[in-house]
């Protein structure tokens, strides 16, 4: 009992020695792809952004999605290094200490136990085995190309994610800018009404207007004060949403700057990220087909081992059972139920889907681009008409304000002019925002 236990401990200690793994010397990995960084390290993000570019800068630096994509690209590079190591020499320790008991009767015949001719009573081994794949150039090159393709897909996904982030930040920035513009109009109108309110009090006291007429104007001033507060809350809400999207911790109510309209650019071609993803999908399907072919090629590995193997646990037997061995291992698929053809059919269906998506995307993007160009032209014409009407309304309000001081214009008529002027201002702000949305959407398509 005790000699066998000591033998088991000795064998386990033998295979537990540390083994140094050699580096792969024959196959070189695919060159590591450039790491996708969310932003250059030198760029400093403002703590309280006001411009659109500042919000985009902060959003790219704070985006966990872009950071995750950058890490996935780094992981892809590590995967190529792992594949290179897998093609090198692999060393493993193999140990066993097996005892096969046998119970005999009084005549010496075995009652319970394996045939001693098969088991030899036990199996005690401690071996270090080294294996190295050989004649696998096709498999290795295809694996490296698959990893390189995955890196390209990840980098293209990162560009698409950055574009989507820019679109969401830009849309929310325009929404906040429209809310701020409306707040500015409301404040300006309230200031004018309060100035008129002081003048009308004097006119009412002088008997030019009746008290009941003044009450209508007084109610309009109070209503405008409520409108200003509502617009302030709306602007605070939209600004807070913008900051939340960009990851800005500031909560103060500040004024944002007007965005600069982007230049008109042509529609992005086949090298754009949205189109490139389908090109990369085509390459991936081609490599998947080659991977299927590689699985049906013979696999040859060189094997070398050294250690001890014995059917006896006695130290004398173990000391004379140390040796080495080597040879080749061959794996060759013969029949698998025509799985290869079924996998080819799956890839063909995936290719049909890819072509359908790409064709649909191409037509859709062209239609969207032309529609946005039409909307921009219509917005330019609408803005021209609104500005002309606003100029006339401003002149009418100014003239009515002067006549109001002499009592030549009724207060209700003056309020109607002011209401029309306020409506035109709101229409102008909405039309300007819609035009900016169309321009930025067109710019997004020009890069996507």
From TrEMBL:
Spans traversing the lipid bilayer: none
Presence of keyword Protein transport: no
Organism superkingdom: Bacteria
Record has Coiled coil as a keyword: no
Swiss-Prot/TrEMBL keywords: Cell outer membrane, Membrane, Signal, Transmembrane, Transmembrane beta strand
Compartment(s) where it occurs, according to its Swiss-Prot or TrEMBL record: Cell outer membrane
Span of the signal peptide: 1-27
Name listed for the protein in its UniProt record: Transporter
Species, as recorded: Hymenobacter glaciei
